[in-house]
Amino acid sequence: MKNINIKIADITQEDVCAVVNAANRSLLGGGGVDGAIHRAGGEKILSECKKLRTSTYPDGLPTGDATVTTAGNLKAKYVIHTVGPIYTSCKNRCEELLSNCYINSLKIAKDLKCHSISFPAISTGIYGYPKDDAAKVAYKSVKSFLDTDDTMEVNFVFSSQSSCDIFVEAIKGI
C-alpha cells in the first residue's frame, strides 16, 4: 500500500509527527520499546505521563487505549502511548485489543493533524503475542484506517531484520 512503509530502524530516531510507544499500564516506562522511548525522550515524557496518572488514568492506561504526550528530546513531536494485550491473559479478545491499539493511536494522530506516524510491533516482546499473528492484526488495522483516511504515512519500524522479515512474510496476500 502506498502509505505504508516497513523498515528496520531505531524508533527513537524516527523523524515523524508521532511515534507510538508500546507502553505498560503504568505509563511510567519499562523495558523494550517503552524503556527506549523514555530514555531517549527524557524527563519531559515521564513528567507528562505522571500527570496523566494523577488525572485521567489513576488506575493506569487500559489495554487497547491510547494517550499522547510530548516527545521530549525525540525528533518526533508527539509520543502516542498504547498498551497492548498480554497474549496469555487476553483470552479470546487478543485480536480486538491489539487492533484497538493501532486504531486508537491513529485516531489520536489524526486529531493532532499528524501526517506521519511510526509504530513498533506492539505486544510482540515480553507480552508474548506471536509475531506473525500480530503482524496480520497490525497491517489489517492500519490498512482499514487508511482506507478511510489516506493522508497519513504509516511506518512499521523493526529493530531487527528477522522481525521485519516475519512481518513482511505474514502480511503477504492481505
List keywords for this structure.
six-stranded mixed sheet, alpha/beta, Leucine Aminopeptidase, subunit E, domain 1, 18% strand, 6 strands, Macro_dom
Question: Would you give an account of this structure?
Answer:
This is O-acetyl-ADP-ribose deacetylase. Residues 1-174 form the Macro domain. The chain has a single domain (4-170), classed as Leucine Aminopeptidase, subunit E, domain 1 (3-Layer(aba) Sandwich). It is 39% helix and 18% strand. It has five helices and six strands, in the order ββααββαβαβα. It has helices at 32-41, 43-54, 94-111, 131-148, 161-170; strands spanning 4-8, 18-23, 66-70, 78-83, 116-119, 153-158. The protein has a six-stranded mixed beta sheet with strand order 1-6-5-2-4-3, with helices on both faces. The protein is globular and about 45 Å long. The model has no long low-confidence stretch (mean pLDDT 96).
Overall pLDDT level: 96
Can you tell me the overall shape? globular
The largest pleated sheet is described as: 6 strands, mixed
| CATH architecture classification | 3-Layer(aba) Sandwich
Helical region count?
A: 5
Over the alpha carbons, how many angstroms does the gyration radius reach?
Answer: 15 Å
Secondary structural class = alpha/beta
Termini distance? 10 Å
Percent of residues in β-strands: 15-25%
Total separate domains: 1
Are there runs of 5+ residues with pLDDT below 50, and where?
none
Strand order across the biggest sheet?
Answer: 1-6-5-2-4-3
Query: What is the H/E string?
Result: EEHHEEHEHEH
Number of strands: 6
Which fold name corresponds to the CATH topology?
Leucine Aminopeptidase, subunit E, domain 1
Q: Helix share of residues?
A: 25-40%
Specify the CATH class: Alpha Beta
Task: Kindly report the name of the CATH homologous superfamily.
Answer: Leucine Aminopeptidase, subunit E, domain 1
